[in-house]
Design a protein that fits this description.
Length: about 120
């Protein structure tokens, strides 16, 4: 597994997908298997009504997804893609000032608990 020019590669023959960005700028290319694993992880961790910050999500992912290289980078870019696709959104925290939390949208709630597979 290596990071070359913003592309996370695990094996030469694995399929890559290009992510989206919420601000309509160009995304990055990530191996499909890694993307699916991280997207499923993110959607499982964000429960309706619970406050989950990006920092908390990355800390959990580093423990649970240690088989992938550069887990924080993966989580960040998959999170951006899920935002761009309308599955999650950032909102200001009700509890902590200057902090944003991740929440599922209506689209995300429909997919909660199901394997993430719109690339298959």
């Amino acid at each position: 597994m290596s990071l070359i020019n913003g592309i996370l590669l695990m094996e030469v023959n694995n399929e890559l997908i290009e992510t989206r960005h919420p601000r309509k700028s160009k995304g990055v290319k990530i191996e499909k298997e890694a993307y699916t694993a991280v997207a499923n992880f993110i959607l499982r961790q964000i429960k309706d009504g619970d406050d989950v910050t990006l920092g908390t999500l990355i800390a959990l992912a580093e423990k649970m997804l240690s088989m992938y290289a550069d887990v924080p980078w993966l989580v960040y870019h998959v999170k951006l893609d899920l935002e761009a696709r309308g599955f999650i959104r950032l909102i200001p925290s009700r509890v902590q000032r200057n902090t944003f939390v991740l929440r599922l949208t209506a689209v995300g709630n429909r997919h909660k608990g199901q394997p993430f597979s719109f690339f298959q």
